[in-house]
Amino acid sequence: MSPRRPLPTGRRSVIAAILLSLLVAGLGHFFVGRLARGAIWLGGSLAISLILRGGDLATWVPLTLLGGIGLLSALDVWMLLRWRAAQG
Q: How far is the CA of 75 from the CAs of 1, 18, 25, 59, 72, in angstroms?
């Protein structure tokens, strides 16, 4: 198993990851190299959208942008990067 790529800690990278997560839940995680975590956020937001709207995928984007899922994803990626920066 190959070692994990180091998380970006630069201010621009952190801001980019947060903005990407706000745009699409999980996209910021993909940006920083946490593919499994990003897939969970993306898949979860799709699943919640499908469950809440009875299979209507057209509501996924508004739910992600306005429903708080993107905000939670952005908070998660920010905490991940902040924790990593504190570790050195």
A: 29, 7, 10, 22, 5
